[in-house]
Amino acid sequence: MLPGYSMNSFRHAAALWFLAAVLFSVPARAETVIGIAGPMSGEFAAFGAQMRAGAEMAAADLNAAGGVLGEPLVLEFGDDACEAEKATALANQMIGREAVFVVGHFCFGASMAASEVYAGQQIVQMSPATTLPRFTDGRPGPGIYRLAPRDDEQAPVAGRFLAETYQGQRIAIVHDRTAYGKGLADAVKAVMNGLGQTEVLYTGVDGGQPDYSALVTQLQLEGVEVLFFGGYHLEAAAIVADLSERGLNTVLVSGDALATDEFWALAGPAGEGALLILPPDPRLFPDAKGIVDRLADAETPAGGYDLRTYAAIQVFAQAAEAAGSLEHGALVSALDSGTFDTVIGPVSFDDNGDMTLPGFIVYEWRGGTYQPR
Question: I want to staple 35 with a disulfide (CB 3.0 to 4.6 A). Which of 94, 151, 323, 334 is the partner?
Fold first, then answer.
């Protein structure tokens, strides 16, 4: 026995050592990490904010109910600014953060670039926004999904609407040279032309410009009565505001990217009457009412992508519970074969990883909100 130690003190120390060994041998409670990747900064940050709001509410609700497979969800947010290079770097960061599922990305280029990384590392990816068909048509492996419409489903509705509603009128088709905008514009043009309506102008503009006066002058000279714009809301708002300032009554028709309150905030009264082609608004679905009300109470009014992000996390959680595992193959099998109850209605996926969706309809901006026409 060491000098100065009694038998009791020795026994006490030994008990403490044993207790410490037991405590340190107990593993910390496990967590399930999921990533939320999108434009948290830059010109598309409004959409990233919607994704964040939906993800935070979904994770809080699931954790309050016991998490996923008994483990709490932890969110890892990442900003790709809608840039492919940043998205690739972010996807690699998600690997380091041990994410098993990523909601994202938002823009097509970012989603495509990141999908290569996720597929290679067997991380399930689900975009709430990417609409270009190639995202899933050319997916690099199983486990790549979308909770968004496809442009080749949106374009027939838009093209038919233009040809039938504005038959004989002077129509221009303009895009913002992005993969999303040009892809949509080209598909709409093909459908409209196939129905016998020919545009008087087809051109592209660079996004992010301070003004589009040169384009508006061209539209004015061509006597354009209807403008289909394939692109994002920032450019659309600037163009329609310039048209209004010149006293032109050109009707703006566009796609799902105009489904954000920021369009109205930027366009103001000039946005009155602007038309957009969308699936039925998820904010109007009965299952979404509770979430929509809670988002309003939190002063983050629902915009659509928040609900799709919430739904994506619901789908993941239900697939994991059905599979009884977070292993990639088990999750993919469950996602490919299941139907999931979400705030945007029952969700299932086809062989491409595309979500089954109701048909598209035409909406109109009226008094600061877009409503079915």
Answer: 94
Beta carbons of 166 and 197 less than 8 angstroms apart: yes
Do residue 115 and residue 99 come from a single domain? yes
In degrees and rounded to multiples of 5, residue 173 shows phi and psi of: -120, 120
Per-residue pLDDT reduced to its tens digit, 229-254: 999 999 999 999 999 999 999 999 99
For residue 105, whether the previous peptide bond is cis, meaning omega lies within 30 degrees of 0, is yes
> Is residue 297 a contact partner of residue 314, using CB atoms and an 8 Å limit?
no
In this predicted structure, what is the pLDDT of residue 123? 98
Name the pTM for this structure: 0.75
- 184: helix, strand or coil: helix
- Cα 142 to Cα 94: distance, rounded to the nearest angstrom: 18
Over residues 127-137, the pLDDT tens digits come to: 999 988 999 99
CA distance 265 to 252: 16
β-pair type (73-79, 101-103) = unpaired
The pLDDT assigned to 185 comes to 96
Quote the domain boundaries for residue 50. 32-149+284-337
What distance in Å separates the CA atoms of residue 338 and residue 299, rounded to the nearest whole number? 34
Tell me which residues of the chain have a pLDDT lower than 50: 1-29
β-strands 171-175, 201-204 pairing = parallel
Shared domain for 136 and 179, answered yes or no, is no
Determine the Cα–Cα distance for residues 280 and 19; give it in Å rounded to an integer: 60
